[in-house]
Amino acid sequence: MFQIRGVTRTFPSRPEPVQALRGIDLDVVDGGLTAILGASGCGKTTLLRILAGFDRPDAGEVRLGERVVASPGVFVKPEKRSVGIVAQEGALFPHLSVAANIAYGLPGNAWSAAERRSRTERVEAMLRLVGLPGYGDRRPAQLSGGQQQRVALARALAPAPSVVLLDEPFSALDAALRVELREEVRDLLRSIETTAVLVTHDQNEALSLADHVALMRDGLVVQSGTPQQVYDHPADPEAAAFLGDSVQVPCSVLLDDDAGHDGMLVVDSPLGSLRVPAASVHDGTLVLRPEQLEIAETGVPATVFATRFFGHDGLVQLRLDDGTPLRLRVAGTDLPALDASVLVRTVTGR
After folding, report:
1. Which of 26, 189, 301, 317 is surrounded by the fewest CB atoms within 10 Å?
2. Distance in angstroms (rounded) separating the CA atoms of residues 214 and 170
3. What confidence tens digit (pLDDT) does each residue in 263-307 have?
4. Which positions fall inside the ABC transporter domain (predicted)?
5. DSSP assignment string, 284-349
6. Burial of 344 (0-12, 13-18, 19+ CB in 10 A)
7. DSSP of 187-243
C-alpha cells in the first residue's frame, strides 16, 4: 500500500540540525497491520506525519498504491490522500456529539435529505462496528478513555480510507484496558481487511498485534519482517534487547557449518560448546532468549541471585561461576530459592 524509498527529514535546531529520518525504505503490507516500533526520538512519529501528509520529506519518495504522494516537486495534501488518523488520545472535538465527531470525517455537506440520511446511516454503522450503538448523542466527556478511542477509530474509518494510521492510540489507557482495546481494534481491522500502520514504542503491542514489524533506530529502519522473524532473528544485539528479554554472552566461532546458506555455527561460550543458528551470533556475541535456557539435571553450574514472580511464570536471574549473568523463564510455581546452586543448559528448538 505505502512504498517508502529513501525518505529523509532534517529539522533546524541548535547547536546543529536534527536528522529525524536518514533514508527510510519500507513497504506497508496491503490489507495488513504494520507496526513501526522504536524508542522515543527514533523518528517514527516524523515518518507517520509524512505518510499522513502533515509534513514533507526533504528527499525520497512516498507512494500510496500507484500514486506518488510525496517526492521532489510532488506533494498531495492530507485531505486528498484517503488516509484515516487515530491520534494518541483520540483528539475528539469536545463541543460536538459522538455522532457529529464521526460525521466530521465524512466528505461533502449534508444539504439534501438523502445526503443527511446517508451520513446518519454511515455514522450508525460505524457506531455498531466499534461496539457503541446508541452513543451518538453523547459528548466525549461522557465517555471513558476506551470509548473515546473507539469513537476516534470510527471517525477515521467512516470515509472508508485506503489506510488507517494509528499514533500510539492505546498509550494513555490503563494496562488492562490497553490490552483489551488493542485486541478489539486488531480484530476489527482484520474483519474489514483495512490496511493499518501503528506507531508504538511498546514491544509487546507490536509483536502481538502486527502482521509486519519495522524496527526503527536513529532515523533508520534497522530491521523489518514478521513479528516472529524480528524476535527470533534480531538484526543485532541492540535490536534483540529492544524487542524483548535477551541473554547475551561472549562467544568464539569454532566451526562454520555452511552459515552462508542459513546454516549453523559451532561456538565456544560460557555455556559450553554450542551449535547455534548463524543469525544468533553478532561480532563475538551470542544472543539468546530466556526461553532458550532451562534449569536441568545436566549443564553448566550457576547460582541464583534474583527471581521475579509474574503469576503464570517467573524470571530467574543466574550467575555462572565465571560471573556471566543469565536470565531464564520458569513456571511461576517452579521458582528456585535465592543463592541456590543449579545447572543450566540451552534448549534446542526454541
Report:
1. 301
2. 19
3. 788 999 999 999 988 889 999 999 999 999 999 999 999 999 999
4. 2-243
5. TEEEE-GGGEEEESSSEEEEEEEEEE-SSEEEEEEEETTS-EEEEEEEGGGPPPTT-EEEEEE-TT
6. buried
7. HHHHHTT-EEEEEES-HHHHHHH-SEEEEEETTEEEEEE-HHHHHHS-SSHHHHHHH
Q: Which of 187, 119, 122, 177 is nearest to 145 (CA)?
A: 177
Domains contained in the chain, CATH given: 2-238 (3.40.50.300), 245-346 (2.40.50.140)
- Contact of 229 with 235, CB cutoff 8 Å: no
d(CA 153, CA 158): 9
CA nearest neighbour of 315 among 299, 301, 326: 326
Name the DSSP class of 32: S
Closest CA to 173 of 85, 86, 89: 89
Closest C-alpha among 319, 42, 349 to residue 200: 42
Q: What is the residue whose three cell numbers read 557449518? A: 257
**Bridge-based pairing state of the strands 212-217 and 33-37:** parallel
pLDDT digits (tens, 9 = 90+) for 228-255: 999 999 999 999 999 989 999 999 998 7
**Residue appearing with cell numbers 543469565:** 326
pTM for this model (two decimals)? 0.87
